[in-house]
Amino acid sequence: MSPTPESGHAASSKPALWKWSAALTVFILALLMWRCGSALLQGRKLADASARQFHERLNAGDYEDIYLGAGEGFRAGQSHDDSIRFLETVHKKLGLAGPETRLNVRVDTNTHGTFLTTQYSTVFAAGTATEMFTWMQSGSTLRLYAYHIQSNTLILDKPTGQNAKTVD
Q1: For the chain, how big is the Rg over CA atoms in Å?
Q2: Could you give all domains of the chain from N- to C-terminal order, each with its CATH number?
Q3: If you write DSSP's letter for every residue of 143-155 in order, what string do you get?
Q4: Higher pLDDT, 16 or 75
């Protein structure tokens, strides 16, 4: 018995279907990787600009602007007065913020939103510090969600203002 034309045709279409499925899968994976990569690059740019703006406000003594521009996560962490006092202390003990170098960026997306956590090594007038900013993305802008700073200068018992240039 010879095979019918339909049965021979069905057998040859399976490899073609498999090739198309594999090609489509590779295309979708490449597209997802490209989107994630471009989102990370955009996030880095936004985070760097936001960190520079934070330092400009800190240098100018605009602690209230920092507080009011921050998101609910930052404001819920401690009282208004404690937040302002903390920012004043950072500014008085470390002095003017200078250049920062980004050490890493992490992006987390969950049911509460998209968060970018960036870590910087920042040169201040009185010493260096490692700063960690957590930003909550809202459209094409970032709002401060959390701020942590580590510096030996902050914990050493020096009179405020020593070796620090501050803005009056």
Answers
A1: 26
A2: 44-155 (3.10.450.590)
A3: EEEEEEEE-HHHH
A4: 75
pLDDT digits (tens, 9 = 90+) for 112-160: 888 999 999 999 999 999 999 999 988 788 999 999 999 998 888 665 5
Residue 84: name the closest of 57, 60, 66 by CA. 66
Residue type, 28: I
**Average pLDDT of the segment spanning 86-107:** 94
Residue 115 burial (CB count, 10 A): 19
54/48 Cα distance (integer angstroms): 10
Question: What's the token pair of residue 14?
Answer: 């399976």
Question: What is the pTM (predicted TM-score) of this model?
Answer: 0.72
Nearest to 94 by CA among 144, 160, 148, 50: 160
**How far apart are the C-alpha atoms of 90 and 26, rounded to whole Å?**
50
Q: What is the number of alpha carbons within 13 Å of residue 27 lying toward its C-beta?
A: 6
Residue 126 neighbours by CB under 8 Å, 6+ apart: 93, 94, 95, 153, 162, 163, 164
Cβ count near 43 (within 10 Å)? 20
Q: What tokens does 113 get?
A: 């939103």
